[in-house]
Design goal:
Strand content of chain A: 25-35%
Distance between the termini of chain A: 28 Å
Helix content of chain B: 55-70%
Number of strands of chain A: 10
Largest sheet of chain A: 6 strands, mixed
Oligomer: heterodimer
Helix content of chain A: 25-40%
Distance between the termini of chain B: 27 Å
Structural class of chain B: alpha+beta
Strand order of the largest sheet of chain B: 19-20-18-21-17-16-23-12-24
Structural class of chain A: alpha/beta
Strand content of chain B: 15-25%
Number of strands of chain B: 24
Shape of chain A: globular
């Protein structure tokens, strides 16, 4: 149990009530071990993003339990869930979600500032994170609008990594990228998984992207319809 | 993130400088208004206090009988014998005017110039070349002037000067000059000192004075000395300390203070609404970014705190811009407010100097910060507390605020508060409750914006579609799709423009009330008075000999004199408005309107000196009743008068007594007239009579000869003058309102950049996009005007009917400023078009491809 990065126990999520109710997730149970790279697949509306939101603690289940790093999210206050995210969970979005008025470096450094790290140290660590995701030096003072899609996603990943989380949740991180850039990003994620033993939950439509994980979970209508372990190193 | 770190807010503000500059301008306007009003109030009060202090010199007590009231100079002798009195200075205090175009007012101080102690009281110091011992100073035409007066006119010792006095133009010889010390510093050096007897001859009557300055012994208690003096004074005379006069002045200035504070509330309220609107829009637009902050793990209250810090930065910018603007505005306002205060209190306008008080600036800055932070607090909380998932999902959609029932509950509470405050004001005669009702009405106006927008959304959509086709439909749809922002802008316009209408309603009601009353009361062919204004709006009195000379002019059939003088009754100031008896019996001179009950044959009784008519503010303030007697203390003893009826006049805010001038002359020893009404024979050319009077005695007496209509116009112009400062502030409020419209339209265009790009891709021409934004501006302007009209009428009615009479003492009838309202509507709509021009150009100029990529 201690080694589980994420544990979902009979988790359901329903939106609305009565006849209007929509079931996004239905009694899902799932375990992600520490250091495991899990890909979640499924068609649109299958509940992938809902699953991710529940794991990140930005949404609450209608029933069931969600444990992250051994902590039951339902037992935590909003502030405690925020602290958990800031310290232990990195979040990568499909649409990057970088702040348009911040430079690349500032976009990476700001979570550290909220952890109480001084600006100079935050900047140094942001620089290191950007180096880790192989963003060119000359682009660090640029704003998101001046970066390519691939560069923006590298910045977004650097932002997710800079606090050295134990869990990374990524919602279609290659969905807005061309295949070559997407592949680079996926290589980067797998590198982080193997080198830092970072647990990753990757939501994707792409079987190629899913192939980078240790295990693929397929959702349909809010239920797990298939679990496929992927063997061998790539 | 450290508590005081501004790094995050600065980064977030980076991309919004242009957008938020309008919010900063609005805050700066509010700060400027508060700073200016506070500095101006203090400077104006200080200027009046300086005059009192310097005129009093070392004197600790002053004895007088009110404005122009002469009393026998042997009073000084009996006062000098009172225990605790060190010595006394009998004074004739008067005004003269320089002849010629300048016509400057000169303060005359007649005193015993051979008495060293008297000279010492006023710190008069001689220049080289003469002394107060010079026997020539006792000559009736001898005067001592200040160095500033002499230098300005190139005079030297021994030169002669022509001055206008109540008895006409007289020539005086300069026998001495004063260093700029003590009283000589006053009135920019426009001071004339002369011997008591000379002053009595030229400005009063031999044996009579109008003031005794008392210097009490150092060890004596001034209060006890005053009591002892009161015991020996004849009726009608009163003793008071300069501190008491300052307290009275403070009271008079407090009314202006309240009015200026009410305007501060308006200015800050409008700034608050603009800042609230601006920050709501910015935070709304950035909601997804706040969602990211929350998703990555920043606590809700930390997000809120960072947003509030942004508002603090805007507050800093508003204060930095607002303080210097406030100093500039204060310089513009100071002469106007001083003039208004002098007119209201019937005092000479002092030379007020603006002094920068740190506390005024701190107050303005503090209120500016408060407005900025309060404006941000709710939008920031709304933005910070949003569910992260919804925030990220509903990017670009206005989020629901408080529930409609909560809003209606708030509106009902404010409505009940307004009704309660009005009832309490009427029951308790309290200005404070009037100000509370005013504040609540302003809040109510702000809250009425949303229901108005909801109510007109449907008709608006149909109406603009019918009038302007698809552009009108898009405009109306956009406004109704963002009801919070639309209603905030409408509320801001309603509050700002409503307050402009409110002030104009009060000004118009005052002016028209004065015109209505004086048109009935003053119907003679000509009104003759001094060309000089002594204090406030009252002309300097002239000797009644003028009336005899007017009688002798060919074509004149009847002349009647009027003396207007400040007096005291029931512990405060009132006015005596005394007319010759013929005025009351010959209606061709005009007749004061009577309201309510009256005794039979009221005007005949007044003419006989048996009764007097009091004004409606006298009744309201002092509780007089028709048929009852009131007793006035006069220099000649108590005067009991039957209250014969109630009229209206605008001479004293505490009320006036209209009485016979024969009675006045007898009891006040004053035979001067403030105005003389002249009737001509039927068929006489009035212009010829006017020219004859001017030729025969105009220059000698320094006369102004007007028709009744011109005199009434003069009164109206004085009212306009008194409200001049209000027009400047109204302009400022209008400017803030225009900034608000521009702000909202700019926000709408920026937010819809992608949408506009899509419209253009479909093939809609630039001019339609341009027109769409302009229509939005027009719609906001029209809705704002509708709300402003309702607010202006409500506030105007409240003030005219209740608050203004309690605050200033004037009882007015309600007159709505239709002309001003139409002009305001036109200016607002033109301003709305102008405010929409830049956003419209930006929208129309967007390249579709660029707009679609806009993030």
């Amino acid at each position: 149990m201690q080694d589980d990065a994420v544990l979902l126990d009979q988790v359901s999520k329903r939106y609305g009530s009565g006849l209007q109710a929509v079931v996004a997730l239905a009694e899902i149970s799932l375990r992600v071990a520490a250091g495991e790279f899990v890909a979640v697949m499924g068609p649109s509306g299958s509940g992938k993003s809902t699953l991710l939101n529940l794991v990140a603690g930005i949404d609450t289940p209608t029933s069931g339990r969600v444990l992250v790093a051994g902590q039951d999210l339902a037992q935590l206050s909003d502030d405690a869930r925020s602290d958990l995210r800031l310290r232990h969970v990195g979040f990568v979005f499909q649409s990057f979600n970088l702040f348009p008025t911040f430079t690349a470096e500032e976009n990476v450094a700001w979570p550290l500032e909220f952890l109480g790290v001084g600006w100079r140290e935050a900047r140094r660590r942001a620089g290191a994170a950007l180096t880790q995701v192989e963003l060119k030096d000359g682009t660090r003072a640029r704003r998101p609008a001046e970066l390519s899609g691939g560069e923006q996603q590298r910045v977004a990943i650097a932002r997710a990594l800079v606090t050295e989380p134990t869990l990374l949740v990524a919602d279609e991180p290659t969905g807005n990228l061309d295949s070559r850039t997407g592949q680079t990003i996926l290589d980067l994620l797998r590198g982080l998984n193997t080198e830092r033993r970072l647990s990753i939950i990757l939501v994707t439509h792409s079987p190629v992207a899913a192939g980078y994980g240790h295990r693929t979970i397929e959702l349909r209508d809010g239920r797990v319809v298939r679990e496929t372990p992927i063997g061998g190193d790539r | 993130m450290r508590l005081l770190s501004l790094r995050m807010p600065l980064r977030f503000l980076r991309g919004n400088y242009g957008r938020l500059s309008l919010t900063v301008i609005a805050l700066a306007c509010g700060v400027a208004q508060v700073a200016a009003n506070d500095l101006v109030s203090r400077a104006a009060l200080q200027a009046f206090v300086d005059v009192i202090d310097t005129v009093a010199g070392r004197a600790s007590l002053q004895i007088s009988s009110g404005d122009g009231g002469l009393f026998a100079d042997d009073v000084a002798t009996s006062v000098a014998a009172v225990p605790g009195v060190e010595f006394v200075v009998p004074v004739v205090s008067a005004t003269a005017f320089a002849t010629g175009a300048s016509g400057e007012l000169l303060a005359v101080q007649g005193m015993d110039v051979t008495d060293d102690k008297a000279v010492g009281v006023y710190e008069l110091s001689e220049e080289a070349g003469w002394t107060f011992d010079d026997p020539k100073l006792l000559l009736p035409d001898a005067i001592v002037v200040t160095r500033a007066f002499a230098d300005a006119r190139g005079h030297a010792l021994g030169d002669t000067v022509d001055l206008d006095t109540p008895r006409g133009t007289h020539r005086f010889a300069i026998r001495g000059m004063l260093e700029p010390h003590g009283v000589a510093r006053l009135y920019q050096g426009n001071l004339i000192v002369m011997d008591l007897h000379g002053a009595q001859r030229a400005f009063g009557s031999l044996g009579f004075i109008n003031r005794v300055d008392v210097v009490a012994e150092r060890s004596a208690d001034a209060g006890r000395v005053a009591e002892a003096i009161s015991a020996v004074l004849p009726p009608g005379l009163r003793v008071e300390a300069p501190t008491q006069r300052k307290a009275d002045l403070n009271k008079a200035m407090r009314a202006f203070g309240v009015l200026l504070s009410a305007l501060d509330i308006v200015g800050l309220g409008a700034a608050f609404l603009i800042a609230f609107n601006g920050l709501s829009t910015v935070f709304e637009g950035r909601a997804w970014q706040l969602g990211i902050l929350r998703a990555i793990g920043v606590r809700m209250r930390v997000v809120w705190r960072e947003l509030v810090k942004e508002s603090l930065l805007l507050g800093v910018a508003g204060v930095v811009l607002g303080i210097p603007s406030g100093l500039g505005l204060a310089r513009v306002l100071l002469p106007e407010v001083t003039k208004s205060a002098a007119l209201n209190a019937k005092l000479a306008t002092p030379n007020a100097t603006l002094a920068v008080h740190g506390s005024s600036l701190v107050l303005a800055a503090g209120l500016g910060f408060l407005a900025a932070v309060l404006a941000a607090a709710l939008p920031a909380w709304r933005a910070a507390r949003g569910e992260v998932v919804e925030t990220l999902r509903d990017r670009g959609v206005e989020r629901a605020g408080q529930s409609a029932s909560a809003h209606w509950l708030m509106r009902a509470a404010v409505g009940a508060g307004i009704a309660g405050a009005i009832v309490l004001q009427l029951k308790l005669d309290s200005v404070a409750w009037g100000v509370v009702a005013t504040g609540l009405l302003i809040v109510g106006t702000a809250l009425a914006g949303r229901p108005l927008v909801d109510m007109v959304s449907g008709p608006l959509l149909r109406g603009w579609t019918w009038m302007a086709g698809p552009a009108g439909r898009f405009a109306a749809m956009h406004l109704s799709r963002n009801p919070r922002r639309t209603s905030l802008t409408v509320s801001m316009l309603g509050v700002g423009l409503g307050c402009v209408l409110w002030l104009w309603t009060v000004a118009q009601s005052f002016e028209q009330s004065v015109i209505d009353v004086t048109t009935q009361a003053m119907r003679s062919d000509l009104v003759v008075s001094s060309v000089h204004i002594e204090s406030g709006f009252l002309e300097t009195p002239v000797d009644e000999l003028l009336m005899t000379e007017l009688h002798d002019i060919a074509g004149v059939v009847s002349v009647t004199g009027n003396r207007v003088v400040d007096w005291h009754y029931a512990g405060g100031p009132i006015a005596i408005d005394a007319f010759d008896p013929v005025y009351f019996t010959d209606v061709t001179f005009g007749q004061w309107p009577l309201f309510g009950a009256r005794i039979p044959g009221v005007w005949e009784a007044v003419a006989r000196g048996e009764a007097a008519v009091v004004t409606n503010n006298f009744v309201a303030k002092l509780g007089a009743k028709v048929g009852e007697a009131l007793t006035l203390d006069t220099p000649a003893g108590p005067l009991a008068l039957l209250v014969g009826g109630v009229s209206a006049d605008f001479t004293s805010p505490r009320g006036s007594i209209i009485m016979s001038r024969d009675l006045y002359k007898r009891y006040w020893n004053d035979a001067r007239v403030t105005r003389t009404f002249v009737r001509t024979a039927p068929g006489t050319d009035i212009a010829t009579v006017r020219a004859t009077i001017a030729g025969a005695m105009g220059r000698r007496y320094g006369l102004r000869i007007l028709s009744s209509a011109e005199l009434i116009d003069y009164f109206a112009s004085q009212v306009r003058l008194a409200f001049a400062g209000v027009y400047i502030l109204a302009g400022l409020v209008l400017f803030v309102a225009v900034v608000g419209i521009s702000d909202t339209l700019a926000a709408g265009v920026i937010e819809r950049t992608r949408e506009i790009g899509a419209i253009r891709v479909v093939g809609v021409q630039r001019r339609y996009v341009h027109r769409m934004v302009l229509i939005e501006g027009m719609v906001l302007g029209v809705l704002g005007l509708v709300l402003a009209g309702a607010a202006g009428i409500a506030l105007g009615t409240l003030w005219v009917a209740a608050t203004f009479p309690y605050l200033f003492g004037w009882v007015l009838s309600l007159h709505l400023p239709y002309g001003h309202a139409i002009r305001l509507a036109v200016v607002t709509l033109v301003a709305a078009l102008a405010a929409g021009h830049l956003p419209a150009r930006r929208a129309a100029g967007l390249e579709p491809a660029v707009a679609l990529r806009y993030e």
